[in-house]
Amino acid sequence: MDTTPVTPRSRVRAAWAVPAVAVVAVGAAFAAPPLLASADTAGLPTVQPDELVTRVLEAEPQALSGTVVHTARLGLPDLSLVQVGGADPVSLLGGSTTLRVWTDGEARSRVSLLGTASEYSAVTDGTQAWTYSSSDDEVVHYALSPQDAARAQALRDDPPTPPADLPTPAELGRQALERAQQDATVSVDAATKVAGRDAYQVVVTPTSTTTLVGRIVVAVDARTWTPLRVQVWSSDDAQTPALEVGFTDVTFAAPADSVLTFTTPPGAQVREVTVPLPDDATLAAHGDVPSTLPDDPADAPLPDGVTVTGTGWDAVVEVSDVDVAALLAGDPSAVASLPDVEKSFGGGEGANQLFDQFMGEGDGPPVDLDTATLYDQLTTPVEGGRALQSSLLSVLVLDDGRVLAGAVPVDTLRAVAGA
Amino acid sequence: MSPADTTAPATPAGAAAVPAPGADVPVRHRGALARLVRAELALVLGRRRNLVLLVGLALVPLLLGVVLYLAQDTALAGQGPPFVSRVTGNGLFLVVASLFLCTPFLLPLTIGIASGDAIAGEASAGTLRYLLVVPVGRGRLLAVKALGALVFAAAAVLAIAVVGLVVGAALFGVGDLTLLSGSTVPLADGVLRVAGVVAYVGLSMTGLVAVGLFFSTLTEVPIGAMAATVVVAVVSSVLDQLPQLAAIHPALLTHHWFDFAEMLRVVPSADVLAQGLAVQAGWVVVFGALAWARFTTADVTS
């Protein structure tokens, strides 16, 4: 083109300046809002840790709806293959997951875990709960047995009278703070913005140096005192939190009734699960509103077969006689004992025949492949069992039926197990 | 019309002399633009190749519906990608399932062919120079070509949707719609939501049309522009799979394509839908500007 410039150079330059400006304008339009959103929080009065904790305890539960992003960097093996099937709570173990939350601040709420063209919903109305998975069109209905439901209703109508020395939230807050300060330092960090709202930050830093937890940061809304974000930092990564759950947008208003109710969709498979209510004796033991927090959580009565070693953040919980294989198999004995379980597919007559053919052949319990595969992917074989090591929590499953868990490295668990 | 639109591209050295649009006197003819639009739409919608493409797309819901109808009592019923398993229960889902299956590749391929051909096809057939003689500026000519490509994209999405609705209603019937959230909405609301899905998918293709139009102004080989357009869509979806590139994912052309599912959640989030459309608008602005800059300054020799 050096011989005869057919279009004047200036004209060419001017024309090509238009897309250049377009790129800059579009880039700015997408980049600007987040930059503007991180505006200052200078107007917030400072608060002391004890005052902040008290305010949070005093705060009324808020009706709200919002979007929550859950990000886990637990150092677990990549589970992206598991997630191909659609929205599934398993995806919470790694990577970023978006959830929508609606609650009326009382008993009713809905949480939806969003996937690409799929969704996993959990709805509760206080006495019953449903989960619905759009990828396999299955409803799981959790409810109390009729007798238990009547008993729960009676309890609700006639709540146990609180003892006269019921502590005020301020008192409980002071106690909670003292408890936390036994094993950690509690401080208030610089105010921040979460989901566009001013928020105070409480930082809990464990004093122990052997635990995997570096610090926990809770951002609390400065107006409603609702926790808006929780970040858990592991002790070996100071750059990014290992676990982060926070609102990206939140509205404090009562959600529509249609969102908080659940009706089983026609044609969906329904699995009924009856949730046992503890018997009266147990309820009576726990029913009283505690006047104070127990002095040491380790003093609380533990179920049989559960022991706790160590204190504070280094505590290791040990459960003995766990049949891991049965759990992975979906506990066939438990499944068989539920007469309501509908062992059929939505796929019609042919599918059921096929299912029966396959099921008729094997002698062993039907193993839930997904669960078993997940278990194999997550854990690594160690001497005497398998171990799950994440950046915040370790679990050691021993071949002799003991399971140990704690916010400590696996080696510590093995030392406890060997002791 | 900017004065540049009437600037004459003179003859490059050695090439055959080409009359340029309104080199000396910009001649305006009342109604020329309208005639050009009519001619372009007739060309796009009447061209046999484009009709074959539309019929091919319309076959997707037909085949899918027939296969699901025949397989609904076998062991494989209820299997498959999202939405497909729901078609047998409600014919409305045949529209959504067909769009879901066509969105990753078939729809971009069809739209890439139409938009990549828009300018390059005329150039390769040697008719672009005659088009430039039409008393309509180059900017408007480009806009007319873009309109043709957009109309074809809309026709492609509507072909899937209409055939899906008819086949779905005929084979499976329509009724209250079960959303991804497990809630059930009345038929009228369900039809509105599915219409929203169709509209969102159609608008999601506008960015790709702009990309195709830009490539089409770069070359005289239409197949090259078509291939490049499809490659952009494919590369974009490949990049979308890499977690290492999570930072750029929200800006990718294909990243928000499947957000049409938002219409089928209990409370569709306007933010999510607006975000997806805003990204498409960004691509349209950038590649529309690139196509305009290229087309209004290029020397047309064919």
Written description of the protein model:
The complex is a heterodimer of chains A (419) and B (302). Chain A is α+β, with helices and mostly antiparallel strands and 419 residues long. Helices cover 29% and strands 29% of the residues of chain A. Chain A has helices at 9-37, 49-58, 146-157, 169-183, 257-260, 280-287, 324-328, 332-336, 349-361, 369-378, 410-418; strands at 64-72, 95-103, 109-115, 118-124, 129-133, 138-144, 184-194, 197-206, 213-221, 227-234, 243-251, 269-275, 306-309, 316-319, 380-382, 385-389, 394-398, 403-406. Chain A has a twelve-stranded mixed sheet. In chain A, strands 13-14-18-17-16-15 form a six-stranded antiparallel sheet. In chain A, strand 9 (213-221) and strand 10 (227-234) form a beta hairpin. The N and C termini of chain A lie far apart (84 Å). Chain B is mostly helical and 302 residues long. Chain B has one domain (29-297). Helices cover 63% and strands 1% of the residues of chain B. Chain B has ten helices and two strands. In chain B, a hairpin with a 5-residue loop joins strand 1 and strand 2. In chain B, helix 1 crosses helix 6, helix 3 (92-102) runs parallel beside helix 7 and helix 6 runs antiparallel to helix 7. Chain B is globular. Mean pLDDT of chain B is 88; it is low at 1-25. The chains are: A alpha+beta (419), B mainly alpha (302).
